[in-house]
Amino acid sequence: MAGKIEARLKDLKIELPKAAAPAANYVPYVVAGKTLYVAGQVTFWNGELKFLGKVGREYSIEQGQQAARLCALNIIAQAKAACEGDLDRVKRICKVGGFVNCPPDFTDHPKVVNGASDLLVEVFGDAGKHARFAVGAGSLPLNVAVEVDAIIELA
């Protein structure tokens, strides 16, 4: 039987990507006690990179939000892997960090990272509300438009 969060994903017609393998010498997540640390997730969709370039140049704010949403889908996929398939073990999304690949004069980082934040609240409800930072970067790995990480409390 599917859990509450899996049912919510189905109701929202949200498909999760496969949890991406790390691209370097790190692990995609670490569980320490009841805290799950999810490494920065980029704009992979089942092994294919999407949204390459800068928000504010190649991409609009709205397209940046879609890129951030994709990062959040990857965070949920990693959380599912860490929880051995049981997303109901996610008690709270505690903190999200968002990096936006953008030109130096771009100042709408929070609007872009809202794409990730909004998805997490949509999926987890009040447990998805979190502390956050959103900053600009002159470049990001693989030239992705957005990268997002998360700290999650587990039940």
Please sum up the structure shown:
The protein is an alpha+beta fold.
Count structural domains: 1
Helix content: 25-40%
Report the structural category.
alpha+beta
Percentage of residues in DSSP E strands: 25-35%
Listing every helix as H and every strand as E from the N terminus to the C terminus, the arrangement reads HEEEEHEHEE
Question: What is the CATH T-level topology?
Answer: 60s Ribosomal Protein L30, Chain: A
Reported for the largest beta sheet, the result is: 5 strands, mixed
Q: Can you put this structure into words, describing what you see?
A:
- This protein has 155 residues and is α+β, with helices and mostly antiparallel strands.
- The protein has a single domain (4-154), classed as 2-Layer Sandwich (60s Ribosomal Protein L30, Chain: A).
- Helix content is 30%, strand content 28%.
- The protein contains 3 helices and 7 strands.
- The chain has helices at 4-11, 61-82, 109-124; strands spanning 29-32, 35-41, 44-45, 48-49, 90-101, 131-137, 146-154.
- It has a 5-stranded mixed β-sheet.
- Strand 1 and strand 2 (35-41) form a beta hairpin.
- Helix 2 (61-82) packs across helix 3 (109-124).
- The protein is globular and about 45 Å long.
